[in-house]
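Duplicate of #3305? Posting structure anyway:
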């Protein structure tokens, strides 16, 4: 018996369904591949697919912001300045700039989260590039960007055709600042002090903005930057940014590579679970740091995806095992929803990397959602406003629970690949007066591509009312039980 106390415990953020947009140069022509250069607009099919995905927030950022100059991508198109993509290779035309990004957010109904150029994150290769450029930003440049976006009286924005301000609320200052080796970026102290300069300059323009500061671990050491960020800049930090880029195989002889996983999907799933087991301890460490510092800051997981070889192109990410894995990760973020307020599970869109939520495909293919995108869409349609405590004994299932008014949402994963799991579920002090179950269970070797876009379509089943729900969860399944409840008389 699984007994659930339906009392709301904390507010769930809608921004657990964030996606992030970054031009990726020659590696995965993500942003400009979705742009119609003949008509100067986003491709209509692309907009339709993103509306289906329904991201609650879209972040403009990534390492791009370490050398991004926002003024190069505004104004008349024939005067925009192309930009070398110093990390990913190639040339970015800047035909997709700030206005186009904001238009995209408005079309798909997503809140914008804008990254700024944080003094090139202290990286010498962007401060003095191989072409002799200084691509580092300044606090003044970031403040001017806030003014351009949020000040009703900004003349330059009006000249460029936007009379009313966008009023962007969320801003990230610093991206993967701790990842390069020491001497090739800021120290943690330098980063925190630099953050204070940016925060003060940006808030002088708009005191209401919410700021995300970099607090993740160093790339080659088990050392968090959050303590110094909160010690030095704590009164300016609304969210501590961390990236879940640790999601790679644990075994030297891993089969999570190429097509090797197809030889033994049971072992592949066991290895995916080993990767998953890294995530909660990492979250708990960061939560403990924030609590120890007495901070009100919350956590923003602004990047993070499953990293398999060949680099970011493993076909497993097309398959249902990836759907199961990402459902577990999203359940985890919900269970930590008192602290995790912004999160993403994957890269956003492109036509090469398989770590994307959306695949654009070749010019003759239809765009489609990858398993991670399908899970985001599925959960986004069926989730409550408040988190509910999850029972300790789940009878071998993985679960996250939420609630809105008298509607309870159970996100349930049966990670046993071969056996169904039948359990009794009761809601303390309540009876179930109706509801539906939505189940995805296509089989462990099922996959999606441009010809199989609906492979993971959920099946709907009515839930019979009563004091007790007896339900069978198929093997390798993700189910949402959406229950109407009322107090017992």
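Output from current build:
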């Amino acid at each position: 018996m699984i007994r659930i106390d339906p009392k709301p415990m904390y507010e769930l953020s809608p921004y657990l369904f964030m996606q992030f947009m970054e031009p990726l140069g020659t590696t995965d022509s993500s942003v400009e591949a979705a742009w119609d250069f003949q008509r100067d607009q986003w491709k209509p099919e692309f907009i339709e697919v993103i509306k289906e995905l329904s991201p609650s927030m879209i972040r403009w950022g990534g390492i791009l912001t370490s050398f991004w100059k926002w003024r190069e991508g505004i104004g008349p198109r024939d005067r925009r300045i192309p930009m070398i993509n110093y990390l990913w290779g190639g040339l970015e035309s800047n035909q997709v700039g700030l206005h186009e990004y904001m238009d995209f957010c408005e079309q798909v109904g997503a809140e914008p989260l804008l990254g700024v150029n944080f003094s090139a994150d202290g990286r010498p290769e962007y401060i003095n590039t191989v072409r002799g450029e200084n691509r580092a930003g300044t606090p003044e440049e970031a403040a001017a960007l806030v003014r351009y976006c949020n000040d009703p009286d900004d003349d330059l924005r009006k000249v460029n055709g936007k009379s009313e301000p966008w009023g962007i609320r969320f801003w990230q200052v610093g991206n993967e600042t701790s990842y390069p080796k020491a001497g090739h970026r800021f120290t943690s102290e330098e980063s925190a002090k630099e953050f204070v300069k940016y925060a003060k300059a940006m808030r002088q323009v708009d005191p209401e903005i919410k700021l995300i500061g970099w607090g993740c671990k160093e790339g080659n050491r088990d050392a968090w930057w959050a303590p110094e960020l909160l010690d030095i800049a704590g009164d300016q930090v609304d969210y501590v940014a961390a990236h879940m880029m640790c999601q790679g195989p644990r075994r030297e002889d891993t089969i999570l590579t190429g097509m090797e996983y197809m030889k033994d999907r049971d072992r592949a799933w066991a290895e995916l679970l080993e990767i998953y087991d890294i995530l909660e301890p990492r979250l708990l460490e960061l939560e403990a740091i924030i609590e120890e510092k007495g901070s009100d800051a919350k956590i923003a997981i602004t990047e993070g995806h499953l990293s398999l070889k060949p680099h970011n192109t493993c076909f497993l990410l097309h398959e249902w095992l990836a759907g199961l894995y990402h459902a577990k990760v999203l359940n985890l973020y919900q269970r930590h929803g008192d602290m995790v307020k912004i999160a993403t599970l994957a890269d956003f869109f492109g036509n090469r990397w398989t770590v994307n939520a959306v695949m654009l495909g070749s010019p003759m293919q239809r765009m489609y959602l990858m398993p991670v995108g399908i899970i985001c869409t599925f959960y986004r349609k069926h989730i409550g406003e408040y988190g509910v405590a999850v029972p300790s004994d789940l009878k071998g299932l993985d679960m996250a629970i939420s609630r809105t008014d008298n509607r309870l949402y159970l996100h349930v994963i049966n990670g046993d690949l071969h056996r169904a799991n039948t359990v009794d579920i009761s809601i303390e002090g309540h009876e179930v007066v109706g509801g539906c179950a939505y189940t995805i269970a296509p089989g462990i070797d099922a996959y999606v591509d441009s010809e199989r876009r609906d492979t993971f379509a959920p099946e709907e089943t009515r839930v019979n009312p009563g004091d007790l729900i007896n339900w069978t969860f198929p093997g390798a399944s993700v189910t949402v039980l959406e229950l109407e409840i009322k107090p017992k008389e």
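Confirmed duplicate; merging threads. The chain has a mean pLDDT of 96. Residues 188-205 form the longest helix (18 residues).
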